[in-house]
């Protein structure tokens, strides 16, 4: 009973009190479509301060897709919980009471509430990021982040390796976006280059900030990164990464962040462009180059900037 009472108490303030962004009752915003899917996330948020409740309605979101970008309803709930916790002024423990003041509407069979046998493997690592961006954008609180985890894996019969790669954060009212960091629904850490090179037949040739990739604005978006890995043995590789065709949106006149891109520099001197979602092979001497997306900017650039 005590746990239940505490949960109720902590959930009591789960709707933002009076954030400056909430000046209108509804905030619809379609997210940029993932390439090859033609899908969008649409969200409308209504907050009733009098009764301390909020309705988060995803009506208008695309139907579930034939690819694997569908996200189970639990992912959408987690994204909503994450966003609203960050809007609360005081710290509260993570508990079910936080969700009680929030009514989340997910149309059955949509991208964020698919039905069997929809594929959902990318829903957790990719679509989740776009849900968060759509929510912050709808609230006018934050421009889009890099919107992807840049999932990269490679291996052979004896080696297996998987990493997610950081990028740019979105800017907001009064602050620039952070660069070269993990944000929102990802918080993993890369293997140290020395450890990676000791255990795998690769060399990390470059890992640097991708200058100029953040969206321009009065408060610029954060920059992505450039990562170059040389392979010393044949490897099969996979990449699962969005924001390759449409950059993360800016807000209040800010510009979108740069899209991500990737390619292979073959040992013979040729260059092969690689899609954001797919598999490919790497031969000894090949260099895989990954440039991650930047975050969106906030506010128009001052005259003469």
Describe the model.
By secondary structure, the protein is α+β, with helices and mostly antiparallel strands. The chain folds into two domains: 12-141, no CATH class; 142-305, no CATH class. The chain is built from four helices and 13 strands. It has a five-stranded antiparallel sheet with strand order 7-8-13-10-11, with helices on one face. Helix 2 (73-87) packs parallel to helix 3 (121-139). The longest helix has 19 residues, at 121-139. The radius of gyration is 20 Å and the shape is globular. It starts with a helix and ends in a 14-residue tail after the last strand. Mean pLDDT is 88; it is low at 1-27.
Looking at how many chains there are and whether they match, the oligomeric state comes to single chain
Strand content: 15-25%
Gap between N and C termini, in Å? 59 Å
Largest sheet: 5 strands, antiparallel
How many domains? The number is 2
Gyration radius, to the nearest Å?
A: 20 Å
Please list the strands of the largest sheet in the order they lie side by side.
7-8-13-10-11
Proportion of residues in helical segments: 10-25%
Global structural class: alpha+beta
The sequence of SSEs as H and E is HEEEHEHEEHEEEEEEE
The beta-strand count equals 13
The residue ranges in which pLDDT falls below 50 over 5 or more consecutive positions are 1-27
Number of helical regions: 4
Shape descriptor reads: globular
């Amino acid at each position: 009973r005590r746990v239940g009472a505490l949960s109720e108490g902590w959930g009591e303030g789960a709707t933002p009190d009076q954030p400056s962004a909430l000046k209108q009752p509804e905030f619809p915003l379609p997210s940029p479509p993932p390439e090859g899917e033609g899908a969008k996330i649409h969200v409308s948020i209504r907050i009733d301060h009098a009764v301390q409740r909020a309705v988060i309605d995803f009506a208008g979101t695309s139907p579930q897709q034939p690819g694997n970008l569908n996200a189970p309803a639990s992912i959408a709930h987690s994204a909503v919980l994450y966003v609203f916790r960050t809007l609360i002024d005081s710290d509260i423990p993570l508990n079910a009471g936080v969700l009680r003041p929030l009514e989340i509407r997910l149309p059955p069979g949509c991208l964020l509430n698919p039905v069997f046998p929809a594929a959902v493997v990318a829903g957790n690592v990719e679509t989740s990021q776009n849900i968060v961006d759509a929510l912050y954008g709808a609230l006018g609180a934050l421009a889009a982040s890099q919107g992807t985890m840049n999932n990269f894996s490679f291996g052979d019969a004896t080696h297996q390796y998987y990493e997610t790669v950081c990028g740019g954060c979105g800017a907001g009212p009064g602050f620039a976006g952070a660069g070269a960091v993990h944000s929102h629904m990802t918080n993993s850490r890369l293997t140290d280059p020395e450890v990676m090179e000791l255990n795998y037949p690769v060399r990390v040739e470059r890992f640097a900030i991708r200058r100029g990739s953040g969206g321009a604005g009065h408060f610029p978006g954060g920059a992505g990164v450039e990562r170059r890995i040389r392979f010393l043995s044949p490897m099969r590789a996979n990449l699962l990464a969005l924001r390759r065709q449409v950059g993360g949106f800016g807000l209040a006149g800010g510009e979108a962040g740069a899209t991500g891109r990737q390619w292979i520099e073959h040992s013979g001197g040729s260059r092969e462009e690689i899609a954001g979602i797919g598999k490919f092979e790497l031969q000894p001497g090949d260099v895989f180059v990954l440039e991650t997306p930047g975050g969106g900017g906030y506010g128009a650039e001052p005259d003469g900037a």
